[in-house]
Predict the 3D structure of the following.
Amino acid sequence: MANVRLDAVRKVYDNGQVAVAGASFEAAHGERLVLVGPSGCGKSTVLRMIAGLESITSGTLSIGDRVVNDVSPRDRDIAMVFQNYALYPHMSVADNLAFGLKLRGTPREEIGRRVREAATMLELEGVLERRPAQLSGGQRQRVALGRALVRKPAAFLLDEPLSNLDAKLRSAMRVEIARLHRRLDTTMIYVTHDQVEAMTLGDRIVVLDKGAIQQIDTPHNLYERPATMFVAGFLGSPAMNFLRGRVVDDAGLLLDGGAIRLPLPRHVGVDFSSLVDSEVVVGIRPEDLLPFDGAGEAPIRAVLDVAEPVGNETFLNLRFGEQAIVMRSTSRAVPAAGSSIAIGYRAECLHAFDPASGRRVDLPQRA
């Protein structure tokens, strides 16, 4: 095992494109660190720089106590699992597993022992003589994992290894990877664009956008206290609702140029009094919108556009003035399209963001 540390690592291509703008983080011994973000955010480039497959423009990359900026990939003591499996089609599963060890001159008896050990761990004993074309997608992915596993490296690097699998198999493989990591207790850096994978697999998550790190934290903290609107909108499905307006007093937010007033909490939840006369973006997650059953006027009265039943819950796509919002409902009764729906919200779950910078605005909570 070893820690992997990046200090202000940048990647700038010859055409001036900045792929990674000064990444700094550390994957600790035995940690499962996930890099997540949309396509083109730089996450795979970061992983390829760690592996030595991309050069580093500036900054320092260390594995253990050794700076490896100029160390060749084969001498970095890492193993990488690729998105497309990268198996040798003419070789059997056993030979695919053993190939890297043979290149390193590992004794035959040791190769056999490690291959058997990995095959048992990944339930591949019955397919060792088959070729990749004779395997299912899940089996091919396990072979790719096993080929990295037999190396016993200081760190595992996984570049979107589940993206070619169907939804059911992805879910099963997530559990398998988590179980494997717990058993091996080794450092793992995992790249994905899938926020569900990131939230379920990461001890900590590095969220990237346009080559820059937006936030590094645990899955729980990223969800409950996102540092930016990007993080708030990227993590969570459906995404967080954003309502942009001007705080006119400590209990009211004007939306749509003043056409709609959203009452803000007076006695519980976030205290907006410091933002009076300021523009703000209020964020609220779909599960924190609730059917309104209190006295008086409902805080939100929205019109239902589309209902999306997904089994045990329904996503209600609503129109609140000119703003689209989504509500997660557990009710089996689905209103008709065009219905007017009265909605309340959990006041303690409101988020506030600066509309200019997109950064979180930390406000005190009313008791």
In short: The chain has a mean pLDDT of 90.
